[in-house]
Amino acid sequence: MAPAASALERLTARLIAADPPRAKSLCVSLLGDAMEPHGGAIWLGDLIALLQPLGINERLLRTSVFRLVAEGWLHAERHGRRSLYRLSAQGARHTSHAAQRIYQASEPAWNGEWTLVVIPRTNNGLAERAELRRALEWEGYGMVAPGVFAHPRGQPDAAGGILESLGIADKAVVLAGRDLPGVGALPLAALASQCWNLGELADQYREFIHQFTPLEKTLNGQDRVAPPAAAAFAARMLLLHRWRRIVLHDPRLPADMLAPDWPGHPARALCRSLYWGLFDASEAHLQTIAGHGDGHFRPLAADALRRFGGR
């Protein structure tokens, strides 16, 4: 085994041992990152071959895929004795929505406007309240007062979509607002530390940097060589999986609301550097395993090359 392969595989093995990925969640990461740009379809046997090096055995993977089908993420097709799985329309929507946050190069400038979701007092007994709160918090909203959720970058149509999906579009109000200048009142941004657990999020970013900086040193060492394909794919999946777990819980607050040394910025730069450092070799491995020339595995979509702002 070449030294570069040994170093990369040892590092990946240590990361897996320290925090073993869950089969279902890792499967979603692989489908969104690796398979969606190639058409979103994969044979079960290929999926097993791609994830076994990451500690996911066949039994766990079969159970995970079955659950993803039951939850509407995947559509299953039988071809003789083989099973082909592809992203469903719902799975493709979820993947596309998450990709906007996962692969964003940097946060755009903020215009000072907030999106507010308000549950009127007449709906205090709203049965869907807990589910609504979970959905809004996943979208990055913080609760600034009982029944009032706010986000400085929230998209009103996304908030409306959440209400519609829960069947309560007529039971909540979606508003746009901003601080009034010259009033002398507390700015809404001052509530950031109360509405979002930024300390825990910052710790997660620091841990990401701590975990993956050795990978950057391995890829960019003095005797820099292209990483071996199989090892590069495993490292790319683990990198993207860990990044996805953190960034999808980041409310994406404007820079003015964050500490000057906010660790999310260097963490994103590190992820971008590693992702492109692994990309070509990992794609070669993916082609070897899944590119059977049967029409289901399509050429890489151009959008994939614009991830993290492109190379």
From TrEMBL:
Residues annotated as domain Transcriptional repressor PaaX-like N-terminal: 22-91
Transcriptional repressor PaaX-like central Cas2-like domain: residues covered: 108-178
Domain spans labelled Transcriptional repressor PaaX-like C-terminal: 196-287
Highest taxon, organism lineage: Bacteria
Signal peptide: none
Source species: Bordetella genomosp. 11
Protein name: Phenylacetic acid degradation operon negative regulatory protein PaaX
PANTHER family: PHENYLACETIC ACID REGULATOR-RELATED TRANSCRIPTIONAL REPRESSOR (PTHR30319), TRANSCRIPTIONAL REPRESSOR PAAX (PTHR30319:SF1)
